[in-house]
Amino acid sequence: MTNTIHRLMRPLAAAFVGALTTLAFAPYQLWPVAILSPLLLLLLLHKQSVKGAALIGYCWGLGQFGIGINWVHISIDTFGGMPKIASVSLMLLLVGYLAIYPALFAWALNRFFPTSGRGRLLLAAPALWLVSDWLRGWVMTGFPWLWLGYSQIDSPLANYAPLGGVELLTLMVMLSAGALALTLLSKSKTLLLIPAVIFAAGYGLNAARWVKPDTDKTTKVALIQGNIPQARKWLPSERWPTIMKYTDLTRENWDADIIIWPEAAVPAFEFELTSYLHNLDAAARLNHSTIITGILNQTDDKQYYNSVLALGDTPQGEYQYDVSRRFHKHHLLPFGEFVPFEDLLRPLAPFFNLPMSSFTAGDYIQPNIIASGHALTPALCYEIIFNEQVRANTTDDTDFLLTLSNDAWFGRSIGPLQHMEIARMRALELGKPLIRATNNGVTAVTDYRGQITAQIPQFETGVLRAELVPTRGQTPYHALGSWPLYMWTALAMLAGLLLQRRRHHPDADS
C-alpha cells in the first residue's frame, strides 16, 4: 500500500502542476508560471521509467486541459441537449485526448534521451515539446489552444514573436525551463546565464521596428457588439429584431470608414435576405462606408458555409448575391461546425445535431476583403488560433487583421479572454493591427504590437469606435513562417541523440 501511494505521488503532483499552468494565461496572465510548470514537469520526469514518464506527462496534461479548457463544457452542457453525465463524459474524453500529447512528449524524452544533461534538457526537451505542440495543432484538424508561448504576450519574451511566431516564444519558455531544471540537478549556477540571456535579448528586441506605421492611411472603424443571447439567436421570432438592432446601431455610425458586425450576426442565410442586403449596401455606398458582417450561406447543392460579406464601398460595386465571391471559413470547429464520423455519431445524441454543424470548409488561402480602400485578412472565430493559416493569407498589401467571433457559447468563462489573448499574438507576429468584433465580447482593437488600444465591456450592447493606423513592411515571421524552427528542431534532436551516445554514465554532464 505504501509503495502504491509512493508511485502515485509523481503523477498526482504532475496533475497539480499542469493545472497551475492555467494561471499563466488570460485572464490571470501570471506568465512566469508558464516557465515554472514545465520546469517542475522536467524534474518529475528525472530518472523515471519510460512508462512512468508517459503517465506523469499524461497527468500533467489532464491537469492543464482539465482546468485550462473546462469552459468548453458550457457549450456542450447548455446548448448540446445532452444529459449531464453524457456532457461531462464527452468533456472528459476531450481532455483525455489532449493529454496524450504531453504524455507523448514525456514518453519520447525518457525513451530516447534518458540520461540527464545538456542534450536532454537544452536540446531534446524543447524540440520534442514543439513537435508535440505541432501534432496537437494538426491531428484531426488541430487544437493548438494553450500553447505556452501565448502566455508570454505581455512578458519580455513577447518581442520574439515577430521573429518566429508563438512557437519561438514556446521554445524560449522551454529553453528557460530546461536550463533551470539542469541548474537544480547539476548545481551549476552558470547555467542561469541561459534564461538571463534569453530575457535580456527579449528586452533588447523591444527596440526593433520590423514594420512602419502608415499614418496617411489612418482609418475610422466602428465595431458593433449586439449582445444577442445565444439561446434566442436562432429563433424565427428573433430574426428581424436582431437584424434591426444591428441596422439601427449602424445608422448612428455612418461616419466610420468601416463598420463591422460579428460572426453570423445576421441570423439567416444570405439568399433569404437579398432585398434587405441590397438596401443596406446602397445606404453604405451613399455614406461612403463599408459594412463587414458574418453571414451564413447555402449553395444549390446543399453545401453550407460560414461566410464574411462586405457591403458598400467595395470594388465589387452594387450588391449581388454570389456565394463564390464571399470569404468562407476554412478551419471549422469539430462538433460545432462539422461532425467527424458523422454517420456514426449524429444518431447518438442531440449534441451532434447542433444548429449549423454541417459546414463545408472554404479554401485555405482566399483573397483579402477590400473595404473603403483597405485590405483586411479575415479569420472567423476559431481559425484565428491557426497562425500559419493567418500568415499565409496576409499579403504585403494587407492593412489589418480581422477576426469576427461569437463566444456567447462559453458564457462568462475564461474562454473568450484566452481567445482574445491568442488574437493579440497574431497582430504581434505579423506586425498588423487587429480588429476583433464579437457578439458579446471581447470586442477590441490592437495596434501592430498586439497591445489592446480600445475595447468595450463584455455582455453589453455597444459600439467600439477607434482609429487604426496600418503598417508597411514585413516581420521575419511573416516572411519565413515556421520553417526555421522546423529545421532547428530536427538539428536539436539529432545533436541531442549524438550527445546521448557519447555519454558513458548518467551523471557525466551533471
Model description:
The mean pLDDT is 92. The chain has helices at 2-20, 33-45, 50-68, 72-79, 84-98, 100-112, 118-136, 161-186, 193-205, 239-251, 274-286, 342-345, 387-393, 415-430, 476-480, 483-502; strands at residues 212-213, 219-225, 258-260, 290-298, 304-312, 327-328, 369-371, 374-380, 400-405, 434-438, 443-446, 452-456, 462-468, 471-472. The protein starts with a helix and ends in an 8-residue tail after the last helix. The protein has 2 domains: 2-209 and 480-502, no CATH class; 214-333 and 362-472, 4-Layer Sandwich (Nitrilase/N-carbamoyl-D-aminoacid amidohydrolase). The strands form 3 sheets. The chain has a 6-stranded mixed β-sheet with strand order 6-5-4-3-2-13. Strands 7-8-9-10-11-12 form a 6-stranded mixed β-sheet, with helices on one face. β7 (369-371) and β8 (374-380) form a beta hairpin. With 510 residues, it is an alpha/beta fold.
First-residue to last-residue Cα separation: 34 Å
Strand order, largest beta sheet:
6-5-4-3-2-13
Share of helix among residues? 40-55%
Quaternary structure state of the chains depicted? single chain
User: What are the low-pLDDT stretches, counting only 5+ consecutive residues below 50?
Assistant: none
Order of helices and strands: HHHHHHHHHEEHEHEEEHEEHEHEEEEEHH
**Strand elements, count:** 14
Main sheet characteristics: 6 strands, mixed
Radius of gyration: 24 Å
Question: Which structural class do you get from the secondary structure elements?
Answer: alpha/beta
Domain unit count = 2
Strand content: 5-15%
Overall 3D shape:
globular
Mean pLDDT: 92
Count of helical stretches:
16
